[in-house]
Prior knowledge:
Layout: E1 2-6, E2 13-19, H1 29-39, H2 48-51, E3 56-60, E4 62-63, E5 66-67, E6 72-77, H3 85-88, H4 112-119, H5 125-131, H6 136-152, E7 156-164, E8 167-168, H7 177-186, H8 197-209, E9 216-223, H9 239-248, E10 253-258, E11 276-279, E12 283-286, E13 294-295, E14 298-299, E15 304-310, E16 321-323, E17 330-332, H10 343-365, H11 371-386
Helix pairs in contact: 1-6, 4-5, 6-10, 9-10
Amino acid sequence: MRYLTAGESHGKQLTTIVEGVPAGMPLTSENINESLLRRQKGYGRGKRMQIEKDLVDICGGVRHGYTLGSPIAMVVKNDDFKHWEDIMGEDPIDLDKEIRRTVTRPRPGHADLNGAMKYGHRDMRNILERSSARETGARVAAGAVAKTLLNHLGVKIVGYVHEIAGITAKDQPELTIEQKIQRSEASDVRVLDPDVEQPMRDAIDQAKKEGDSIGGICEVVIEGLPAGIGSYVHYDRKLDARLAFAVQSINAFKGVEFGIGFEASRRPGSKVHDEIIWSEKEGFSRRTNNLGGFEGGMTSGMPVVVRGVMKPIPTLYKPLQSVDIESKEVFSASIERSDSCAVPAAAVVMEHVVAFEVAKAILEQFPNDQFIKLKEAFDQYREEIRCF
């Protein structure tokens, strides 16, 4: 299974094509729209979320509520394109006509300058329109297809905020994954710990007041995966490595860890590795989950716990210094519409890119032409592992 996205931030639409989904899997636009609308929520979001109402149009690969086995094509229209048609339209323009809102001033922390040098663009709008986090809407659509597949297999996944601007939520080990889903959805900062909700809002408000931005840490938890998904045999089949790549590929993400993550470097081995236990009811499991559900690049049967670090959004209302690529003059970087904090929304994006990689690994390991055969094989394997 793989996907491809196309489209620019202020272009006509975002397009996603997902290939390799088994035939006969129940899938409707509501499955996708729920995820897209979740991505647009969150305290600290900018005005763009009020302009766009992201809803999907499934254009291929689904008939009467079931996948066909052919590529699934999905489109999310940009409602704001009518105001950008002369700037972002695909038709040629008169050579003597000046293009509005050209960009020759790269913004620190963005792809503007590096992308312009790589592709030879003098108008860096060609870079920023595609490198915008708006593209994550298309990735969430792909991940929503994967989440639907996982849900039908009895695999649950949730993404939420662990930390914003140094304000850290307490772990909530007593909550079931269903309760985590409900609590994160009820929180406008998408956090499980109600005691830190207001301090996080206050930090976001303060950053906005100062024309600044703040980042944080997102966490994704997956339950229902049997041991042995992934592989120790080849480096590119290690599932934790794939998840690290997927999370790191999200705009503004700068770090990934599993379980206790970097804390493992500060502990002795006896306080890191998870002791193996066995019961007749559950089979093999671990006494703890310090390694975040992975050993040797494979799932251990414990919940998968992965965290991603999101840096502060680089578009600031108190702009940093840069240099014009044409005049070479020093200037203060231009201001585009921006969020003061997008960590709650990023948790949704992270949830969906993780879901896609997990679903992809499952489809590589089990029969993948027909969904009913996939489910039968997956359920049988889960029982074999339990009785091992």
